[in-house]
Specification:
The chain has 446 residues and is of the alpha/beta class. Helices cover 37% and strands 14% of the residues. The protein has an eight-stranded parallel β-barrel with strand order 1-2-5-6-9-10-11-15, surrounded by six helices. It is globular.
């Protein structure tokens, strides 16, 4: 008897702050109209996806002191949108990106527990950190938090939230305690009182984490239910998967207790050639001429507005000390001089312009091909130990997922790799995650 294929977990990503959504396409819609959120969520539920994943930015990002007009420039509050979506969906999980730096445990735990009740057990929290003082200016504490402290505070925040979610359960078993009584004291939080929301349907909302550093990986192994990974290529995804899963045992956890789901893109065509041509066209829509110059300036740390995006790379070297040219965006480049040397080699070898180079070196579409080829590739990644599923990031809002659900999902369902119907009542059940125990386990970052 043949072994049944591993089940693929799927999520739909509604982008928050990025310059990859193609707003110039005639099919593009609003990123703030509720109809857009509803369309993507209903499409994902029709495809039997596990959850809808809402990204968020807490400040409009600036480049050269101005809002970059090809970027997403804001939208309504995450929890408000997810609460509205709870009323128009029945099984789809509702995941929101919410900062552990610029929120407080009692308030956020209460909001997430409320969403879990309103949705009958479908809430999820993507825990993010921020040590960006520019973003912090929007908040009372400003940019007080040192970079080195951000994961410590996040770990303490998650521990505290779990204690709050457990407090109605624990207090019910303690006749001397109040209803939902809690007390928590550590370096970051000194709070006590009574939690005002009853134990929610999942016990704890599902916790998602996206960090890739050593601290981030350890935090995920200790505290997360899902990792939102950036590793989509097969070999690097396998290495990441193996590394993070191996860390679970020292936190008393099994591999089944943590799902790894990379963010991926897709482009479909009737033939492989058509899909490849379409993928190239989309990439050049995503990377406009001004966008290419802007991206280069982030690495060069210089004003390059006088350069032609269809011309060669600047002959001047980067200024490594100028990190403030872009604000509100994570700076991944640690050694801009080394990056510039590598990019010059790539551009010279391929005779590439600035725009060609940025298209070449920035993230490409992960899965490109016919619906059958894309379905094959998705199954290969899961069966080869590269991931447990995928968070799909469409390039169009709100209809960018329609083609995948219409053409790829039926193939996966026919092969038995994707559910035909939801089996569970809660997001945790549908993901196959173990139920939450009566009391929160001790968690931390080692």
């Amino acid at each position: 008897m043949s072994t049944p294929p591993r089940q693929i977990r799927l999520a739909a990503h509604f982008p928050g702050v990025n310059s990859t959504t193609v707003w110039s396409d005639p099919a593009a819609g609003s990123q703030i109209d509720f109809a857009s959120f509803r369309h993507l969520a209903e499409t994902a539920e029709r495809g039997r996806f596990d959850f809808f994943f809402l990204a968020e930015g807490l400040r409009l990002r600036e480049h050269q002191g101005k809002i970059f007009d090809l970027d997403v420039v804001g939208r309504p509050d995450t929890l408000t949108v997810l609460a509205a979506l709870a009323a128009v969906t029945t099984h789809l999980g509702l995941a929101g990106t919410l900062s552990a730096t610029f929120n407080e445990p009692y308030e956020l735990a209460r909001q997430l527990a409320s969403l879990d009740h309103l949705s009958a057990g479908r809430a999820a929290w993507n825990v993010v950190t921020s040590s960006d003082a520019f973003t912090g200016e929007n908040f009372r504490r400003g940019g007080y938090l040192d970079h080195a402290d951000r994961y410590e505070r996040a770990a303490a925040f998650v521990r505290t939230a779990r204690e709050l979610w457990d407090s109605p359960f624990d207090s019910a078993a303690d006749p001397d305690g109040g209803v939902g009584a809690f007390r928590h004291h550590d370096r970051f939080f000194d709070i006590e009182g009574e939690f005002s929301v009853p134990r929610s349907p999942q016990g704890h909302p599902v916790v998602i984490q996206a960090g890739d550093s050593e601290q981030g990986r350890e935090f995920a192994a200790a505290a997360a239910d899902i990792v939102f990974s950036r590793h989509g290529a097969l070999a690097e995804a396998q290495a990441f998967y193996s590394d993070v899963k191996a860390r679970l045992t020292r936190h008393g956890r099994t591999p089944e207790e943590l799902l790894i789901m990379p963010g991926v893109t897709f482009v479909l065509g009737d033939t492989a050639e058509e899909a490849a041509e379409r993928a190239t066209r989309i990439r050049y829509q995503q990377v406009s001429g001004p966008g290419a110059i802007s991206f280069l300036e982030q690495v060069w740390g210089r004003d390059l507005s006088g350069y032609d995006p269809d011309g060669p790379l600047p002959d001047v070297d980067p200024d490594p000390g100028n990190t403030a040219i872009t604000r509100g965006r994570v700076r991944h480049t640690r050694d801009p001089l080394a990056v510039a040397r590598r990019w010059r080699e790539i551009a010279e070898a391929g005779k590439l312009s600035i725009r060609d180079l940025i298209v070449e070196v920035t993230a490409r579409q992960t899965f490109v091909g016919t619906p059958g080829q894309v379905a094959d590739a998705l199954q290969e990644h899961v069966s080869a130990g590269a991931c447990d599923g995928f968070i799909l990031v469409p390039h169009l809002t709100p209809g960018g997922l329609d083609e995948f659900v219409d053409k790829v999902v039926p193939l996966l369902q026919e092969r038995g790799a994707l559910r035909a119907e939801y089996a569970g009542a809660t997001l945790r059940e549908n993901l196959g995650l173990p139920p939450v125990p009566g009391r929160a386990a001790a968690e931390g970052v080692s």
